[in-house]
Structures are given as structure tokens and as C-alpha cells.
Design a protein that fits this description.
The chain has helices at about 10-20, 35-40, 55-60, 80-105, 140-155, 175-185, 205-215, 235-245, 255-260, 265-270, 280, 290-300, 320-325, 340-350, 355, 445-475; strands at about 1-5, 25-30, 45-50, 65-70, 110-120, 130, 160-165, 170, 200-205, 220-225, 275, 305-310, 330-335, 365-370, 380-385, 390-400, 405-410, 415-425, 430-440. The protein has about 475 residues and is of the alpha/beta class. The strands form four sheets. An eight-stranded antiparallel beta sheet has the order 12-13-19-18-17-16-15-14. A seven-stranded parallel beta sheet has the order 3-2-1-4-5-7-10, sandwiched between helices. A two-stranded parallel ribbon has the order 6-11. Helix 1 crosses helix 16 (about 445-475) and helix 4 runs parallel beside helix 5. The longest helix has about 30 residues, at about 445-475. The two termini are about 25 Å apart.
Length: about 475
């Protein structure tokens, strides 16, 4: 299928793109900046830049078999001032109305429109069970969701329409979890308010699966609560997060303090919605992470697929680069993919795909790339590590198609960085291994920094890479 996507560079969109490609779909993304989107979505997405005219949207929709509408500014992006409310409405309701108008102009409409919404549709409902048939509320967020869904339903005479009432999406890279984890890591985490409010949630990979099935399965129609089957209160979620991080959970965050800091937008954290995935249950929807402990363990707890250790004297590859710049540590990562070796190696042969497998917080942008990756090719790019922007220049020192390649940092933040990628066929699957021999800068200070944040950051980056390439190529069950 040819699938047009809005909101492609957002938290869900960046995971959805490789998942759709893994299933053989062609993805067209309607984006505000084609340059920025190429750095985030990789080489194999067709990009159409929104220039504000109907023509650009018509071009993005041309030939579309399905449309997935994920655009919308974050409701936690600041206080809901008059201007902020207008922006939230414009990015959801008005954009969806534009999308439906463009679908009406198509000679052949798509088969399905999958459009975003949120559990905020239900308002603050305490411990009242909320299947999709429950009534909506009339506060600002609820009315925003109701109008958003109504704008999408205007296409129901043209195609199947699915509106996804999404809960809190838990992801490794960004979203609500990224806002909460730092405080919990320092032992300062707690539930918002009294903690008794229900907090609907869903793991990012399950969210992607819901969208893919909504596109492909004609049973999926109407409003759908995109939430995990295990209901949890905010206090239970905080305890589970503490368990995953092996940290204590202290006193809750007072509701008055949240309202003082966030204004009306604090309702996102304090309102209770016991939303249940009734429709997904009816359709026997499969879950990868049905429980909060399983979801948080996957996202936060270390596993043996990414490891870091000291380089033993005399070990490691013999290479002039490492002779001149001795490595102190080696990172190892191993991933098995349900795809033939030729396909996986071709993916890594395209420099543009580096951005797709890099966490969005690093703001990866290629500033110079070769026409093709070969031995001695040079790639330059910008990244951000925390608040610090950095330039990186890497050179390919070994290129053996279908077997391995090596890139080394010529200039950048590390004293040494030698990255060896190896590929091995295992039947119809591919086993991909990364070994990075590296040394942080600044001597003793660098070694202290390595233990505090460099090693955790590298584990996070390579776990994220694993997530994306598994979405792109599939992983063994």
C-alpha cells in the first residue's frame, strides 16, 4: 500500500515509518521541513514539504491507499494560554479538516483514514470504567478531542475512519517517560496529585502495532482506545517505575504545585480516565507488552544485548587508528533480524539512514555525505549531546559489502572511536554485531564522566538502534 503520513517526525511517527516499511508499504510523509525530515526518517521515505498551499497536500495524497494522521503539538508544551489553545486546535482540528478536504478532492479516495485523538476525550472520570461507548466530557481537552474526531469522521462517507484515543505512550526516546525518569533516577520520583487517578498507558511498539492493524484490517473502525489492557493508577505507575529503576518512590507531587507550574495543562497529569481497550479486545488484538512491569522492563532495565567493558591490554583489532589513539572501552551490541543479509546491509549502506537509528534528542543532521559509502568515504554531521552541539567527521576505513565495514571518528567528542559493523547470514535471518572501541576525552575527568553519563548514554543509543532496526526488519519471536 501507499500510505501518506502526517506527524511523521514525532515520537510515534518515527517508529511507525520503519514498521510500515517492514511490511512492504511505501510511505509518503507530508512534512514542514524536508531537510529535517530526511535526517530523521531515513532514505526510503518520499517527502512532500508543506508550503501552505492545497497543492502540496494534494501531492502528498496522490495515489494514497491509506492516510495516517498523527500531527499535533504536545499538550504538555506549556500553559494553555489563549494563544496556546489556538495552536493546539490548529495543529489538530484545523489540520485534520484540511486533510479531509484534500481527500474529497481525490479522484480515488484512500481505503482508510487513521487519525489521532486521546483519552482526554473522556475528561476527569474517577474510577468509572470507560470503553469506547462512554460519553465525552466538555472541558477544554475533551472538547478538543471531540472536535478532532469530528473533523476526521467527516471523511466517513469516503473511506473507513479510525480515531485512536491514545493514552500515555511509553518510549525509550522522548515522550512522558523521558520527562519522568531523571527525577526517579535521583530517587526523587513520586506520583502526581494523590496518585489515585487512573493513567491509561501503552508501549510505543504496541501503539505502532495498533496503527498498522488499523490500516490493514477492515474490522478496525470508529473510535479505538489505544491503551494497554492492564489499568494502573498514577501511584501504581510510580511504584512500577521505581522498581524498574531500582529506586525508592517518595511523596507524591502535590496537585497545587503542578497547577501552579502548569496551569490548566496540569489536568493531563491529574485527571483520571480508566479507559479500557474494549474494541481491541473484541478484535483479539495481540499485545507485546500488556503489563506495566513488562513495558518498563523493556524500556529501562539493562539486558545482555548491549554491553560495555574495559579493553584488555593487547586485545582488540590491530589498526593504525587504534595504535595512534588507544581505546579504553569496548561496546558490544548484537541483534538478530528476520530479513536477508542483502536487505540489511543495503539499509546501512545509505548515509541518510543514520538519522533514523539515532535518538531524536541528539538532533542528528548530516552536513556532508558521499554519493555512495565506499572505503575512504567521509561523512560529516551535527549532533547534540545534552545541551552541547557538536560536529562529527567520520571516515570509512574498511568496506566489505555483505560482510563488514568500519568507521572511525576523525574529529568529534571522543579521543578515539573505532566502530566495526559485522553481518552474518543465519538462514533467512541476519545477525548484526557492533563493536565500538573508544576512549572519552579529558583523562581522569573523562573516565569519571564515562561512569556517570557516557556509558548510560551509549547503552541508550544502541538500544534505540536495536528498536528501530527490529521495527524495520522484524525480530525473531
Amino acid at each position: 500500500m501507499r500510505i501518506t503520513l502526517t506527524g511523521a517526525t514525532g515520537l510515534i511517527g518515527r517508529a511507525l515509518v520503519p514498521a510500515l516499511q517492514q511490511r512492504g508499504h511505501n510511505v509518503v510523509a507530508w512534512v514542514r521541513s524536508a531537510e529535517r525530515a530526511r535526517s530523521r526518517l531515513g532514505a526510503d521515505v518520499v517527502l512532500v514539504e508543506d508550503d501552505g498551499s492545497p497543492a502540496s497536500l494534494d501531492a502528498a495524497l496522490a495515489g494514497a491507499d491509506a492516510v495516517v494522521n498523527l500531527a499535533g503539538e504536545s499538550v504538555l508544551g506549556g500553559r494553555w494560554t489563549t494563544r496556546r489553545r489556538q495552536a493546539l486546535r490548529a495543529s489538530r482540528v484545523d489540520l485534520t479538516a484540511r486533510l479531509v478536504s484534500a481527500i474529497r478532492r481525490m479522484a480515488t479516495p484512500p481505503q482508510v483514514l487513521v487519525s489521532g485523538s486521546a483519552v482526554g476525550y473522556y475528561g476527569n472520570r474517577g474510577a468509572y470504567l470507560l470503553p469506547e461507548t462512554a460519553a465525552g466530557a466538555d472541558d477544554f481537552l475533551a472538547q478538543l478531542c471531540r472536535d478532532w474526531e469530528a473533523a476526521a469522521r467527516a471523511a466517513s462517507d469516503l473511506c473507513r475512519v479510525v480515531t485512536l484515543r491514545t493514552g500515555v505512550v511509553l518510549a525509550r526516546d522522548g515522550g512522558a517517560l523521558a520527562l519522568m525518569v531523571p527525577a526517579f533516577r535521583f530517587g526523587l520520583g513520586g506520583a502526581p496529585g494523590n496518585g489515585r487517578q487512573y493513567m491509561p498507558w501503552i508501549h510505543l511498539h504496541d501503539m505502532v502495532e495498533v496503527i498498522v492493524r488499523a490500516v490493514e484490517d477492515p474490522r478496525y473502525a470508529g473510535p479505538v482506545n489505544a491503551v494497554a489492557p492492564e489499568p494502573v493508577t498514577a501511584a501504581a505507575f510510580a511504584r512500577a517505575l521505581g522498581r524498574a529503576l531500582h529506586r525508592p518512590v517518595w511523596a507524591p507531587l502535590p496537585a497545587f504545585a503542578l497547577r501552579a507550574a502548569l496551569g490548566d495543562s496540569a489536568s493531563v497529569l491529574l485527571d483520571s480516565q480508566w479507559a479500557t481497550p474494549a474494541q481491541l479486545t473484541t478484535w483479539h488484538h495481540p499485545w507485546h507488552f500488556p503489563t506495566i512491569d513488562a513495558a518498563l522492563a523493556d524500556l529501562l532495565e539493562p539486558d545482555d544485548t548491549v554491553s560495555i567493558r574495559r579493553v584488555e591490554s593487547g586485545s582488540g583489532p590491530i589498526h593504525p587508528y587504534l595504535t595512534a589513539r588507544p581505546a579504553r572501552y569496548v561496546l558490544s551490541s548484537r541483534t538478530t533480524l528476520n530479513a536477508p543479509l542483502a536487505d540489511t546491509f543495503a539499509f546501512f549502506s545509505k548515509p541518510e539512514n543514520l538519522g533514523l537509528i539515532t535518538p531524536s534528542a541528539m538532533q542528528f543532521v548530516i552536513t556532508g555525505r558521499p554519493e555512495a559509502i565506499t572505503e575512504s568515504a567521509v561523512i560529516t554531521y551535527r549532533i547534540r549531546v545534552g545541551p552541547l552541539p557538536m560536529q562529527w567527521r567520520t571516515r570509512i576505513t574498511c568496506w566489505e559489502p555483505g560482510v563488514r565495514f568500519v568507521d572511525v571518528q576523525e574529529s568529534g567528542p571522543y579521543r578515539a572511536w573505532y566502530h566495526e559493523h559485522t553481518f552474518r547470514a543465519e538462514g533467512d535471518r541476519t545477525v548484526m554485531e557492533d563493536r565500538v572501541y573508544y576512549a572519552p576525552p579529558f583523562g581522569v575527568l573523562g573516565r569519571i564522566a564515562h561512569g556517570l553519563f557516557i556509558a548510560p548514554m551509549l547503552r541508550h543509543i544502541f538500544r534505540y538502534r536495536q528498536d528501530i532496526i527490529r521495527l524495520r526488519f522484524g525480530a525473531p519471536a
